Amino acid sequence: MKTVRLLAVGWWFQLKMISRSPFEGVGQIIYPLFFATVAFFVFRAGDSPRTLLYASLGAAVMGMWSATSTTAGAAMQRERWHGTLEALVATPPHFALVLLPITLAMSTVGIYSLAATLAYGHFLFGIDLMIEHPLAFCLAVVGTVLSFGSLGFLFAVMFVRFRAAWALGNLFEYPVWLIGGFLVPLALLPSWVGPIAWVLAPTWGMNAIREAALGGTPLPDLALCLVLGALYIALGILVLDRVLGAARKRAALSLT
Amino acid sequence: MAVVEAQDLHRTYRTSTGTLRRKWKNVEAVRGVSFEIAEGELFGLLGPNGAGKTTTIKMLITLLIPTSGTARVLGFDVVKDAREVRKRIGYVFGGERGVYERLSGYDNLRYFAELYGVPPKEIRPRIEYLLELVGLKGREQERAEGYSRGMKQRLHIARGLLHDPPVVFLDEPTIGLDPVGARELRATIASLAQAGKTILLTTHYMFEADALCDRIAVITRGQIVAHGTPADLKRGVAEGTVVEVEVFGVPEGTPDRVRELNGVLGVSIEEREQAQVLIVQTRADVELTHSILGTLDGANIGRISTREPTLEDAYVALVADEE
């Protein structure tokens, strides 16, 4: 209970901080518009209205992923810039319980991106937003946010040694759009891409959201998405202990 | 039992120069520091910038692993039992950074109260009490980005005390504060000591250590060069005399020439607008004014005065000896 409370409070305050950043706010208004426009112009040639929803959902999840990948990788670096990393490390909880809410808050911002992209698509381009299984759709969105936050957590841990961690996060933005099948179906990509896509939670999150919206069986995809998210957290925790130990040895916690 | 024990602490940093042909160098920031702090004691670690004060404190609060040596806080090893140590200590550092600027002062404290495991029911009254203690009451709902440096520093103090820790580490808490703010902060630190907290304070202000500390250790170049009560340290210089000579452009090599004079205990130079002041500490039984003037090699000389040594002179002498 204490752990859940700590995660929830950490998530809430981090979300509060992100929502007050004018720079990040402007990006969150512009990007969804861009994504919705791309989806519409790429797929408008299709004759089925469901194709546009398919594309619109892909664009929406692209926005969700961008919101996470471009920020989460540099989550620890951001704390360094604020001068808060040492203060956080000096608190008693395992640092994973401090870091995970930060990356989860970053991925939560993606819900806004998803909603804005769908709304832009609907109001500007007339895309029909008929969702077949609304409850499953909501669950799929929450599950995808959780798995994105988990992957962001793993990125944050892996990239902590690199001062240009934000650039590494950006590096993963576009390949995941492609490999995760956000806009182009996986079947159209070379077969060797398949195994890479399977270990990426965003692939299954995307599938779950589309299955729920377009009519299908979203739960197996959602389950896989959550299992992969849990694996990312477990791997992140293992790496985090080593990373923090090394940082305390090398006096790298306060470096900016 | 000592609440804080440091035994032969060493800390070496590895630094590099160059890009393609990187040359690595080991810098010894702390070289064999040992001390103990008893329960309820306010212990000062005093030294100039770069002396190793912050490195020492960071080893004690578990943020840095010592290269060698051991340290314990309330019986817990700072390396092996880091989590147990963290539960029982508060850490306050000087400077403006280290707060979430976009959160209010209250939210900053609320977040860290959760991290320090303050029971939910106690969080609000505890924060209210601390806001009152550090003088931020009434400003707590404002975003921290609008706080002055002094207010941020007081927010740091409140944060360090959220879980009511028995041991508090204060790393140069008054640095950069205006005189009134610094005085208020010193009063807060004194009240913490009166409340029975064990405190380690690092500072490079002699008068601050003198006013607050039960015992002081002077650290320079990573080593403790003197320790004792403020009175002990004062006694070490009480029998000398200080000659101050105002000089408009001290000739090169003057401090070395003055140091060679028989009876000189320490030499330092202080910048004062257009002039410099050569401060020479001498034994009480010698009169060296003429000899000192003789070393100045025809430089323009202003006011000359002789006075009793202060604690600051003792500190300067100790630090200068090592440099």
Describe the fold and architecture.
The complex is a heterodimer of chains A (256) and B (323). In chain A, 78% of the residues lie in helices and 0% in strands. Chain A has 256 residues and is mainly alpha-helical. Chain A has one domain. In chain A, α1 packs across α6 (95-125) and α3 packs antiparallel against α11. With 323 residues, chain B is of the alpha/beta class. Chain B has two domains: 4-227, Rossmann fold (3-Layer(aba) Sandwich); 236-322, 2-Layer Sandwich (Alpha-Beta Plaits). Chain B has eleven helices and 14 strands. Chain B has helices at residues 53-60, 82-88, 105-115, 120-134, 149-160, 179-194, 206-212, 230-235, 254-259, 289-294, 311-322, and strands at residues 4-17, 23-37, 42-46, 68-73, 76-77, 89-93, 167-171, 198-203, 215-220, 223-228, 240-248, 264-272, 275-283, 300-307. In chain B, the strands form three sheets. A six-stranded mixed beta sheet of chain B has the order 6-7-8-3-9-10, with helices on both faces. Chain B has a four-stranded antiparallel beta sheet with strand order 2-1-4-5. A four-stranded antiparallel beta sheet of chain B has the order 12-13-11-14. In chain B, a hairpin with a 2-residue loop joins β4 and β5. In chain B, α3 crosses α4 (120-134) and α4 runs antiparallel to α5. The model of chain B has no long low-confidence stretch (mean pLDDT 87).
Read across the widest sheet of chain B, the strand sequence of neighbours is 6-7-8-3-9-10
The N- and C-terminal alpha carbons of chain A lie at a distance of 35 Å
User: How many β-strands of chain B, per DSSP?
Assistant: 14
User: What's the number of domains of chain A?
Assistant: 1
How many helical stretches of chain A? Answer: 12
* Class from helix and strand fractions of chain B: alpha/beta
- Spans of chain A of at least 5 consecutive residues whose pLDDT stays below 50 are none
Count of spatially separate domains of chain B: 2
Amount of beta strand of chain A: under 5%
Q: Topology as H/E string of chain A?
A: HHHHHHHHHHHH
